[in-house]
Structure to design on (226 residues):
């Protein structure tokens, strides 16, 4: 069974540009989460989807970040316009409803904003 | 508030036991976790413990939970070079949308 996949693995962009990160959860997992780790800090929760609905987006830093999960399958996280402080590793995780304690993480997207 | 603290570095000789410690502030956590991140890789769920348990053992891994002191530890017996990684302590809360709260991670370095 394929795990959580994320694309791209790395992205280097200039300040002011737009970047879109993609996450494909494990098939059948209705819960999808986005987290990020900026340099030297904790891994922080960004938001949580249940199917296509946003269950909790309390961790989204500001309105430059937009997450979508149309159709309840894969999810995208767009940063527009990117700022220097957005650099970090963005992780996606998924879990089954009823098994939320077991979140499986993807390999992450390493974003560098210059 | 929610806060998870752990030391940033630990060096251990190959073959010895590693003990990684973690403290947390919110006693209402439901699950406590240890995640492992190897260089260039994603987060791997190593083990987790339900908050009403004191101990969990899985092969070389032993997790100890002291709820009174809000202290979680991970013991790795017979540490191998492949155990070199960053270990994240984390907690989640059943009724708070399941988001996981992570510590900053402990980098485990194996000495030959």
């Amino acid at each position: 069974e394929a795990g959580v996949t994320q694309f791209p693995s790395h992205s280097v962009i200039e300040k002011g540009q737009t970047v879109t990160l993609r996450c494909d959860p494990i098939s059948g997992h209705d819960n999808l989460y986005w987290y990020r780790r900026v340099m030297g800090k904790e891994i922080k929760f960004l938001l949580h989807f249940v199917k296509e609905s946003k269950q909790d987006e309390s961790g989204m830093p500001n309105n430059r970040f937009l997450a979508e999960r149309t159709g309840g399958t894969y999810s995208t996280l767009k940063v527009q316009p990117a700022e220097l402080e957005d650099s970090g590793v963005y992780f996606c995780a998924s879990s089954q409803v009823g098994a939320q304690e077991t979140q499986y993480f993807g390999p992450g997207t390493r974003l560098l904003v210059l | 508030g929610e806060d998870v603290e752990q030391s940033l570095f630990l060096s251990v000789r190959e073959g010895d036991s590693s003990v990684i410690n973690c403290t947390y502030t919110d006693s209402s956590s439901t699950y406590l976790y240890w995640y492992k991140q190897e260089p260039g890789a994603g987060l791997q769920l190593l083990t987790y413990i339900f908050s009403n348990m004191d101990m969990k053992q899985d092969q070389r891994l032993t997790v100890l939970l002291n709820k009174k002191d809000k202290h979680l530890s991970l013991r790795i017996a017979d540490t191998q070079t492949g155990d070199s990684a960053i270990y994240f302590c984390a907690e989640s809360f059943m009724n708070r949308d399941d988001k996981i709260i992570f510590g900053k991670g402990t980098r485990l370095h194996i000495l030959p």
User: Anything to note?
Assistant: The mean pLDDT of chain A is 93. The longest strand of chain A covers residues 43-50. Chain A has no helices and eleven strands.
